[in-house]
Amino acid sequence: MTLNDFRNAALHYLLAFLAAMALAVPAGALAQGNAATSSEPYVYKVDTLNGGLAPAPDDFYRDTPQALLESFLDAGKQEDWARAGYALDLTHLTPEERREQGPVLAAMLYDVLSGSIIIDWGSLSDRPDAVDTTTSDKNPMAGAARRNIRLGRIDLPGRSASIRIARLQEPGADPVWLFASQTVQNVPELYGIYGPTKFERMLPESLRAPAFWTLAWWEVIALPIVILIAFGAAALTWRAIGDFVNRYQDTIIARILKAVRMPAALFAFAGTFALVRQQAFTFSGLINAVLDPLQTLLIVFAVAAVFLSIIEAVLDRVADSQIEDFSKPDHEHDRNYYTMLSAIRRVAIVVVLLLGIGIVLIQTSLTETLGFSLLASAGLFTIVLAFAARKLLADIMASLQIAFSKTARIGDAVKYSGEWCYVEKIGFTHLRLRTWDNRRIIAPVGNFVQESFENWTKKDPTLTKVAYLHLDHRADIDALREDFARFVEEDEDVIHKDEAKLQVVDHTPSALVLRLLAPAPDPQRGWNMHCRMREYMLKAAVKRDAATGNEPSPAFIPREREVRLDLSREDEAG
Fold it and tell me: How far apart are CA 113 and CA 438, in angstroms?
């Protein structure tokens, strides 16, 4: 191909491309104009709509979602089920079945709606195209026409069913809103679960009459009865557990039962309440909207509390019975083990609480409303709540930090605020410390992270005990060293005997200061040895002092008081 041929071909393709663009722009503009000016309704096209039924009455309005619900509920209140049947899409039935089953299905659906869901009239559009003009412009459905709307969701065994309305149009007719065919097909199963129980159907008409709000008279009477029955079950559970605790006193069983007494009673209350509601009563949607989340919350909380109480009781029992053993030098592994177990317990508490919250949100469908709205808004309330909880969260993290870093373990001997203590329990916000005289100090965990404290058993439980003696300047130090060496040799709690020392560490106008050093195997035995060492050396000094016959030299016990008495007597004689 020559250069001229290449140029001609390129020019040919360029002209063809420009011609195609010129034709495409008007076509695109025309297509955009058709889309923007189209008056086609957004509907489901059907060949026939409820064929075999007489036309719907003129005063049964179905042109908007809100009109459909109002017409259906008005017909239901009058128990005109043939009229209410015009709100249902019965295309899945034959013409004969539509005439026979339409009113029956309408009556069932009315009871299901009344007893299971609350219609959000504020968000239900009163426009034929169902455009929501009140929602935020950030909502993806803002300004969009709709042909299918979900009114609510109801749980079924193994799945959930939606209550939906749909906009349908048959050829040559105006679009109408009806309860969707799939919803109508689910009505018998929903009615079997959420419809009136046998007990309700046996009630007289006067008790099933409306009382106030959306409540019937039987609901006003039945709700307090159900609560009393649940309280009775909780009281019996509380008493029964109390009898078992009294029977098995001072045992691990009694401790566990005592710990689970309150959550078990709460579970009995919530479980009995749920069982009675399920077997005997089906309350209206308004009551269910309050009772269902509360009931689920109580059951989940009770189960979690029982589980955590058992763990707490077992660990506390072990800690209380073996805390003395933990402090011994050869129980280093046990201190690490129970401290780690305590940390795992706290992690388990957090996991169980988060899991419980998740179950409540899922079971009550709060994730579709409350949960996401709070996360999305992150308003002033959320900020205030986070500010108020910052100290609690900081303490929880400090508790986990102490447990996993093992700066203070269960059973460790520590010196805190001048007190010699053993760590008994590491909680979320506080540590429980037992002093040598069996007092309990409750210390914030933040102090153990932010401030210094002494841990006497962190690496090695051995420590050197120190005692001071204030003696006369004329004391025979070598003689006292012999006494000290005798004590070191005879006392079994003095280890590394070659490291024991007697030293002159200070000299004051009134006394000579001696320091006695002796290593001990652990803090508890070291304290007792420390006291015996001081007592032994004081007795030795007094004994040697008495043997001198109060002669000028040598002397062991300071003579300042005796000298002052002698001088005062000389002054009186003079």
Answer: 64
